[in-house]
Design a protein that fits this description.
- The protein is mainly α.
- The protein has three domains: about 180 residues; about 150 residues, Alpha Horseshoe (Leucine-rich Repeat Variant), CATH 1.25.10; about 140 residues.
- Helices cover about 60% and strands about 5% of the residues.
- The protein is built from 23 helices and six strands.
- The strands form three sheets. It has a two-stranded antiparallel ribbon. A two-stranded antiparallel ribbon has the order 3-4.
- Strand 1 and strand 2 form a beta hairpin.
- The longest helix has 24 residues.
- The chain is elongated and about 100 Å long.
């Protein structure tokens, strides 16, 4: 656009002298036409600059005339949509390769140019909301018309990705704050979810409608920003609002998780886990959604393995950030928490009798992999999830006590210092097992007690800062064994360590400081002070 032609447009309108919408409508049409006719980025940048000047200097009554028509609102939206294309991300030619980083070189600068226009318009709308020049209802309709496009644009450029830099992220953050204020929200969550108290709907639905055409099987991988914008918005919306959009977000999350790229699988499972936690169980069971998800998650435990060593960070400025996942992620670490939470949805607690077949299936799977797993990272993940699964299964773990005993004994023997996460988690799992299934633990008393005592002796000579915590948890398990066995732990026979093992045996009640290290002896003393009667211990759960 030539400078003279721009000045002609500015001279054709008389700011503040007319409340007729024909002037602003004509000006918006002229700017859009000039912008779309420009082929060079420099020419488009000049049109954006003059548009921002027009929006900044025009009076509120001219920009937002009283009783504004739907045609004027549509023209505002067309202008914004046209400007968004100036900073649009390039699409990949194939589904297998992401666009090269050099293809994003000009995007941050174009984002700044577009943000200047959007911020100028947002500032005028905010002023008009405080002192409406016309009908406040028509102005609110304009905000609801423009906010989804503005929101989608700012979320795309807020993320720390190859298509953004510090300056563009900062301006996008300012635009997000402006959209938040225009919508009357105090947080991103409220902006997307709305306010039930004020009966105000959020922007999640309208923005999702703009995003879904690109979330198809043939298009979503060609636009790398689509999955990140979708996951960021989804993680901001919680119950009860998320259930309203289940028919849209569930298929999209399944699509992302069903990809052969590990990072996409992880991101998709994160989205599905959020859905499981924030959608009512009845809605998930409807149309067999929960069963489909269970089949996909359980198959994922076998179908993909390895670690993800790439950061996909959705952190943005101004303190409102969401990190979708951490630097290194493996398959069980992501899939198991989602699968365990899903089991409570599939197996309706109200069903009688409760069979727990899905719980049993997952529990057997975890025990099988725990027995043969040698990688410390995966051992920690399995042990951590075993604690949750034992608690969720309740008394039904009695079906697996034999294998569970082997796993617990094996994990107590292998240190994963310095963190000791695996052994801390396995002690928590043993404690919950003893509290829940104590009537069936007596026959396993000897194996568990010997393993715990060997563990105490091993840890007592350690220099780990977690030594006291480990010994405290082991002592608690021994106390529970003493209670559940009605005092039989005291009479359990053990070989002396000094003199040599060929000497006679001694029962635990007769152990003194010459047999074991001092810390272990003090632990044994604290255990044997517990009364032997089961009824005197409030920490044991009576099975129902």
């Amino acid at each position: 656009m030539e400078a003279m032609e721009v000045s002609d447009i500015l001279q054709e309108v008389t700011f503040g002298q007319s409340a007729d919408e024909s002037g602003v409508f004509a000006a918006l049409c002229r700017f859009q036409s000039r912008f779309e006719s420009e082929a060079s980025p420099g020419g488009r940048a000049r049109v954006l600059q003059h548009t921002a000047e027009l929006l900044t200097n025009a009076s509120l009554s001219w920009l937002f005339p009283e009783g504004e028509s739907s045609s004027l609102r549509r023209q505002y939206l067309k202008l914004l949509t046209s400007f968004v294309s100036h900073a649009a991300l390039p699409e990949s030619d194939t589904d297998s390769d992401a666009p090269p980083a050099r293809s994003y070189e000009g995007i941050p600068g174009r984002c700044l140019e577009v943000c200047a226009v959007f911020l100028a318009l947002s500032a005028q709308i905010e002023k008009a909301l405080v002192n409406p020049p016309g009908s406040s209802a028509s102005l609110g309709t304009l905000v609801r018309t423009l906010a989804p496009t503005l929101c989608l644009f700012c979320i795309t450029h807020l993320q720390k990705q190859p298509w953004s830099d510090a300056a563009s992220r900062s301006r996008a953050s300012e635009l997000q704050a402006a959209v938040q204020r225009m919508s009357g929200s105090g947080s991103p969550h409220e902006m997307l979810s709305g306010s039930p108290e004020e009966e105000r709907t959020g922007l999640f639905g309208p923005v999702l409608d703009l995003l879904l055409p690109d979330l198809t099987k043939s298009r979503w991988k060609r636009k790398p920003s689509v999955k990140l914008v979708f996951s960021w918005m989804l993680l901001q919306v919680a119950r009860p609002r998320l259930a309203e959009h289940l028919e849209k977000v569930f298929p999209a999350s399944l699509l992302i998780s069903d990809d052969y790229w590990l990072e996409n699988k992880v991101l998709g499972v994160k989205c599905l886990h959020h859905i499981v936690l924030n959608v009512p169980a009845a809605d998930l069971r409807q149309f067999n959604r929960a069963s489909v998800l269970h089949h996909m998650l359980f198959s994922s435990l076998h179908s993909f393995d390895g670690t993800l060593a790439q950061v996909i960070d959705l952190q943005v400025p101004c303190g409102w950030s969401v990190r979708v996942f951490y630097l290194v992620v493996n398959a069980p670490q992501v899939v198991l928490p989602c699968l365990i939470d899903l089991l409570s949805v599939i197996e309706n607690p109200a069903s009688v009798p409760r069979t727990s077949k899905h719980f049993d299936q997952v529990f057997r799977h975890i025990l099988t992999y725990m027995e043969m797993e040698h990688k410390l990272d995966l051992r920690r993940v399995y042990a951590e999830n075993l604690v949750v699964l034992v608690e969720r299964m309740g008394v039904w773990i009695i079906r697996h006590l034999k294998r569970l005993e082997r796993v617990i004994v094996g994990y107590l023997e292998v240190s994963d210092a310095p963190e000791e996460k695996a052994r801390l988690s396995i002690l928590d799992a043993l404690e919950k097992t003893l509290r829940i299934a104590w009537p069936r633990v007596e026959r396993r008393l000897e194996a568990l007690a010997r393993s715990l005592l060997r563990f105490l002796v091993d840890v007592s000579s350690s220099t780990s800062p977690l030594r006291e915590q480990l010994m405290e948890k082991a002592s608690c398990c021994l106390m529970l064994l003493e209670c559940s066995s009605r005092g039989k732990l005291q009479q359990l026979a053990f070989l002396r360590t000094s003199p040599p093992p060929s000497s006679s045996q001694t029962v635990l009640l007769e152990v003194d400081s010459s047999c074991v290290p001092g810390p272990v002896f003090r632990c044994i003393q604290s255990v044997l002070c517990i009364p032997g009667a089961v009824g005197s211990s409030p920490s044991l759960t009576v099975p129902s």
